[in-house]
C-alpha cells in the first residue's frame, strides 16, 4: 500500500475507518515515500498494520519513512517493534 500526503490525526482517522470497512486483506507492505508530515497517529496506524500482519504470520515491511517519523519512533521506542526503512536522501 502506498500512502501519500500528510498522515496526521484527522486524515489517519478517516483512513482507519475506510480500511476497517473494506473486505480486502490489510497490507503487508507500506510505502511512505510520498508522505509529507506525520504525527503519532501515523505511528499508531503502522502499529495496527504490524499487529494485523503478525496475526496472519507475516512481517510488515515499511519503506520510505520520513525523517521526522523515524525520530518519533525512536523517541517512543516504537522503532524496536517496527522495521522502519528510512526514506532515501534526495540530492
Structural write-up:
This protein is α/β, with parallel strands linked by helices and 91 residues long. It has three helices and four strands; from the N terminus they run βαβαβαβ. The chain has helices at 9-21, 40-55, 67-76; strands at 2-7, 29-38, 61-65, 84-86. A four-stranded parallel sheet has the order 1-2-3-4. Strand 1 (2-7), helix 1 (9-21) and strand 2 (29-38) form a beta-alpha-beta unit. Helix 1 packs parallel to helix 2 (40-55). The protein is globular, with a radius of gyration of 12 Å.
Q: How are helices and strands ordered from N to C? A: EHEHEHE
Q: Tell me the helix content.
A: 40-55%
Largest sheet: 4 strands, parallel
- Inertia-based shape: globular
Q: Report the structural category.
A: alpha/beta
Query: Per DSSP, what share of the residues sits in E-state strands of 2 or more residues?
Result: 25-35%
The strand line-up of the biggest sheet is 1-2-3-4
What Rg is obtained from the alpha carbons, in whole angstroms?
Answer: 12 Å
First and last CA, distance: 26 Å
Report the average pLDDT across residues.
90
Task: List the uncertain runs.
Answer: none
Helical run tally:
3
**Strand count:** 4
List keywords for this structure.
91 residues; alpha/beta; four-stranded parallel sheet
Nutshell version of this structure?
The chain has helices at residues 9-21, 40-55, 67-76; strands at residues 2-7, 29-38, 61-65, 84-86.
Task: Furnish the topology, listing elements before pairings.
Elements (H helix, E strand, L loop, with lengths): L1 E6 L1 H13 L7 E10 L1 H16 L5 E5 L1 H10 L7 E3 L5
Helix pairs in contact: 1-2
